[in-house]
Amino acid sequence: MPLFLPHFNIQKFNTLAVPAVANYFVSVQNDEELREALAFARTEKLPLLILGGGSNIVLRADFPGLVIHIKTRGLDVVAENDEYVWLKVAAGENWHQLVEYTLDNGYYGLENLSLIPGSVGAAPIQNIGAYGVELKDVFAELAALDIQSGLTVMFTNESCQFGYRESIFKQTLKDLYVITSVTLKLNKTPALNLQYPALRSALKEIPAGDISPEQVSAAVIAIRQSKLPDPQQVPNVGSFFKNPVVPVGQFESLKLRFPHLVSYPVDDSHMKLAAGWLIDQAGWRGKEVDGVRVHPDQALVLTNPGKREGKLILQLADRVIASVEELFGVTLEMEPRVYP
Ligand SMILES: Cc1cc2nc3c(=O)[nH]c(=O)nc-3n(C[C@H](O)[C@H](O)[C@H](O)COP(=O)(O)OP(=O)(O)OC[C@H]3O[C@@H](n4cnc5c(N)ncnc54)[C@H](O)[C@@H]3O)c2cc1C
């Protein structure tokens, strides 16, 4: 039976370093302990927070339930052929350590996703993405426990309904499953994705044919370290807002009013706007309110240098959303999940 810790401080378990207490906290090392933890929550009628690295949550207040910290371990090659390897990874493994493991073993496809904080089990929740690659590009399937029945259910790439920072686990199946493992389909020969301009420019000194996956990973790490604050030094959850996707008509009228609008095409009828640019134009870059700050180097990131309460972070987020709405008529959506 895993150890249920009552009245547990979870400040060290969220990368915004928000001070908050959970009614109960439990670390689970395997699926059996996870089942026991879920049974405890059912018996005690406790709300659940399934926690990985805590790098994509905002704690608005104390959590009046059970926090289950997923600490399961394991990586297994479950199939391979001449071209691909299928790697099954336990949900509690660290994402970036997985990226390093794959590079060390000659399995390719994760290099653009280097240095994203958090656990493997959380990666499908918002279909993590960076530098032109998303989890869905390498995803084969996942196993999840149905919280009500305790049964294991498999999800294919299609059934996860991945989108931009989206999956079925944030929509119709929200809070119904705990992901226990993720299986990735990785290349045995490098198939680099260098479409992202900042990445191409970081590697421009190397002839295209000579670039290795390790160099791509190193370049991604260097770019990320130059732009994003390290949560260990300055508490944050990375991008606080999603880049809004708007219809082309709305984009065109905004572009007339704001010729420098930063945008990327999504499909024939939609454009993605750079939320950081919108926030910057609304005058928020570098501003600090109640110990919570809009990051001076990247306005998409809110930091919590004062380790203040979650409600203060959310108050600043609301003010940023209101300013952007007023100036551009665009509603920003938050990326991290708010609890409780
Ligand atoms: C500096 C920084 C940079 C970042 N850069 C990026 C980036 O480039 N791209 C990107 O996509 N994200 C980025 N993020 C966000 C974050 O790293 C990812 O969303 C990551 O996948 C969160 O993992 P986690 O284990 O910390 O999740 P947590 O914060 O612990 O949980 C996030 C959500 O997933 C749920 N969850 C976690 N594990 C499971 C599970 N096993 N089963 C079911 N539900 C689960 C939680 O209940 C919660 O709702 C960044 C964050 C930081 C701090």
Outline of this structure?
The chain has helices spanning 31-44, 95-104, 197-202, 213-227, 248-257, 275-281, 310-328, and strands at residues 5-9, 21-28, 48-51, 57-59, 63-70, 75-80, 84-90, 129-130, 133-134, 139-146, 152-156, 177-187, 236-239, 245-247, 263-267, 270-273, 288-289, 292-294, 301-303, 337-339. It has 340 residues and is of the alpha+beta class. β17 (288-289) and β18 (292-294) form a beta hairpin.
How would you describe this structure to a colleague?
The protein is 24% helix and 28% strand. With 340 residues, it is an alpha+beta fold. It has three domains: 5-70, 2-Layer Sandwich (Uridine Diphospho-n-acetylenolpyruvylglucosamine Reductase, domain 2); 75-227, Uridine Diphospho-n-acetylenolpyruvylglucosamine Reductase, domain 3 (2-Layer Sandwich), CATH 3.30.465.10; 236-339, Uridine Diphospho-n-acetylenolpyruvylglucosamine Reductase, domain 1, CATH 3.90.78. A hairpin with a 2-residue loop joins strand 15 and strand 16 (270-273). The mean pLDDT is 97. The site of flavin-adenine dinucleotide has 32 residues, from strand 3, strand 8, strand 12 and strand 13.
Major sheet attributes: 5 strands, antiparallel
Low-confidence blocks of residues = none
User: What is the 3D form?
Assistant: globular
- Fraction in helix: 10-25%
Total domain modules: 3
Distance between the termini: 26 Å
Give the ordered list of helices and strands. EEHEEEEEHEEEEEHHEEHEEHEEEHE
Provide the gyration radius in Å. 21 Å
Strand order of the largest sheet: 6-7-12-10-11
- Main CATH class of the largest domain: Alpha Beta
State the assembly state of the protein chains: single chain
Identify the bound ligands. flavin-adenine dinucleotide
Quickly count the helices: 7
Bin the strand percentage: 25-35%
Q: What is the fold named in CATH at topology level of the largest domain?
A: Uridine Diphospho-n-acetylenolpyruvylglucosamine Reductase, domain 3
Q: Can you count the beta strands?
A: 20
